[in-house]
Amino acid sequence: MTHLEQKTCEMPIGVFDSGVGGLTVAREIMRNLPNERIVYFGDTARVPYGSKSKDTILRYSHQIIRFLRTQGVKAIVVACNTASALALDEIERELDIPILGVVRPGARVAAAATSNRRIGVIATESTINSHLYRRTIQEQSPDVIVFEKACPLFVPLVEEGWLDDPVTREVAERYLSDLLRQDIDTLILGCTHYPLLRSLIGEIAGGQVTLVNPAYETARELERLLEREHIANTGAKAPGREPYRFFVSDAADKFKRFANSILPYDIETTRKINIEEY
């Protein structure tokens, strides 16, 4: 490997989300690709994305990608289901570095996992209205029936830290009851916040329903992509360099507290930037 190729391999992965939900994707990358460095951006000033228009999501995504490029990233993970659903295809055509969303990896695994060909998807309103999970699944397996359900209250409940609260349980039971009546055997957690409710959702859904976590599947897909592009970091992280850097557009202290409650790595610094400048 040449010196230039080595330098490329040591460049970080850019990861972005509308806020803290994408930390579930960052967590899976940390666990499954321990040699890779990460630059994470959470758009905490403009969260949530789930109720915003496609044009707005595209504008936000372009700004964030311009920022991540200033950080010297070698690849980008769109760790937001809404941005993956509404902006990824257009961004992918414009970029000269690899980019990966969270929808396709999760859809592919769900299509392979179902036995009775009945899959449920829970996500934000924008992701559900885009029908991207349904289209992606049915492109691979046209005979699969996909049942979709928007669960907008899950995001604020997770960010409030109410992961196993009676209120959250009641909300989850009401959201999931319609899907479970459809005899689904596979359920996609189609928002990056939702894996933090995995235990609760699993209890309500029961052992006969396989839960698919797109955050985990995205980390595995990223691993394959880096190897395919010959840019995986096969050596240890360079000493003296921050392995993980975190940026937000607002509320840095609140973000840091939440991140430290779910990541396998303590964040010492979260930097606030003005994303509108990009």
How would you describe this protein?
This protein is an alpha/beta fold and 278 residues long. The chain folds into two domains: 160 residues, 3-Layer(aba) Sandwich (Rossmann fold); 112 residues, Rossmann fold. The chain contains 13 helices and ten strands. It has a six-stranded parallel sheet, sandwiched between helices. The chain has a four-stranded parallel sheet with strand order 6-5-7-8, sandwiched between helices. Strand 1, helix 2 and strand 2 form a beta-alpha-beta unit. It is globular and about 55 Å long.
Give a concise summary.
With 278 residues, the chain is an alpha/beta fold. It contains 13 helices and ten strands. α13 links the parallel β9 and β10.
